[in-house]
Amino acid sequence: MKKELTEGQKLAEEILMQNKNGALTMDAAELAKADAFAEDYKRFLDASKTEREAVKVAVALAEEKGFVPFEAGVKYPSGAKVYAVNREKALILAVVGSQPIEEGVRLSAAHIDSPRLDLKPRPLYEDSELALFKTHYYGGIKKYQWTTIPLALHGVVVKRDGSKITITVGENPNDPAFCITDLLPHLADDQMKRTLEEGIKGEELNILIGSRPFCDDEVSKKVKLNIMKILSEKYGITEADLLSAELEAVPAFSARDIGFDRSMVGAYGQDDRVCAYTALRATLDCESPKQTLVTVLADKEETGSHGNTGMQSAFLRYFISDLAAPYGVAGRTVLSHTTCLSADVNAAFDPTFADVSERQNASYLNYGVVITKYTGAWGKSGTSDASAEYAGAIRSILDRHHVIWQTGELGKVDQGGGGTVAAYIADLNVDVIDLGVPVLSMHAPFEVTSKIDIYMAYRAFTAFSVD
Ligand code: MN
Ligand code: MN
Prior knowledge:
This protein has 13 helices and 21 strands. The chain is of the alpha/beta class and 467 residues long.
C-alpha cells in the first residue's frame, strides 16, 4: 500500500528543487537509446582524434544527410542544409528555417580541438643513439599524465611544392606506436621531490621514435638518419618538410565502455568532442526548424580561441553575413536576435577530489546535461554570465522537452576555473549560455563521461533546435 504524503513532503515536492540520478527517472527504452547512442559516439571519437579528422568525419556524416557546400550569394529556401569548412579545421553547418532570417538563428558552438602534444617545427634529434621528437604541448595538460602511454601521430606535412601528405600512424594494431619515457622509481629520488607540476617538465616531453642506426661509419647521427630515411621512403618527405607540418601526438588507445555496468565512456578528447558530436547529431537529425539552425565546430578553444580557425576569428560573423545578405538582411541584425548554446564540458564531481568542488553547485555524472551560467575564475573574471532571462528561457525549453539537466559551476569559489567560447559569442551581441556534459579526468589522455549525460546533451541540442 502506498503511504500518503505528509504535508511537508507534498510541500517539498512542490517548491524544492528535485535532482535525481537520470537512471532513476528514465525508462528502459530510453536507457537503451542512450546506450545505443554511445556506440555511435565511440566510433566518432576513434575516427576524430584531431580537429582535421573531426571536420572530415562531420562533413561525411552531413553529406549523407543531404548537406551541400555553402555558397555565398545564394538565397537558400527553408529546409536547405549547407556546410562551410574553414581551413580543414573548423566547420559550420546550417539548416535554413521557416522563419525569416532577421529573427535570428539558433546557434550551437562546440570545439573539436583537444589537449595534445604538437611536434616542434624542428622536432627530430638523436641523443645517445636514440631518436626522439621534441614537442610543445597544446592546451592545459598535467604533463606527467602523458608519459609511458602509447601515442599515435596524426597530421599533415606540406612539402616545398605545396603537396600535402596526411599521416596517421599508431592507431592500427599493426602500426608502430610511440611513447614518452619516464624515470624508474629506483632512480627517481630527486624527481620525486619536484612538485607535481614540475614532475615532468615541458622539455621532457620527448617522444621516442627509434633506436636502430643506419650502417655507415662516415655519418654521425646514424639513428636519426635511419628514421628520416624511413619517413622519406614512406611519405616522400625530408627533415625540412617537418617545418611546414602539423603533427599531433595523441593517445593511441580507443574509446571504451567503463564500469561493470558499462554506464560510462572512457576515451581521449571527449572535451569537447562529446558536445561536438551531440550537437552535430542533433543538427543532422533536424529536418525543418522554425528558426535557422547554425552549428559551429570550432578549433583552437584549448589555446584561447585565437587564430583564424578559432571562435575569435570572423569566420562565424562572415558566414552569418553571407547567409543573410541574399535576403537583404545585415549580419548584425541576425546576430542581435540570435540565441546560442555554447556547448562545452563541465568538471564532474569526483569523490576522490571532493574538496575542489562545492557540492551544491557541482555537476554529477548521470544527472544529465549541465547548464553552466558562468565560467571564469577569481570573481567570475573572463566570463560571459548568462542573464536570468536567457537562463530561464533555456531552462524552460529543456523542461518542455523532458531533458534531464542539472546546473554546474567549474569548481568552488577561488579554486581556479576556466573559460569557453561563450564570451566570444556574447561579444557578437548574442544571448549565450554554456551547456554540456560533465567529465571526469578532464584534459587527461583518458577522460570519462556518462552515457546518460551524453544522450541528454543530444536531447538538449535537439530540443533547442526544434523548440
Ligand atoms: Mn572544452
Ligand atoms: Mn578544455
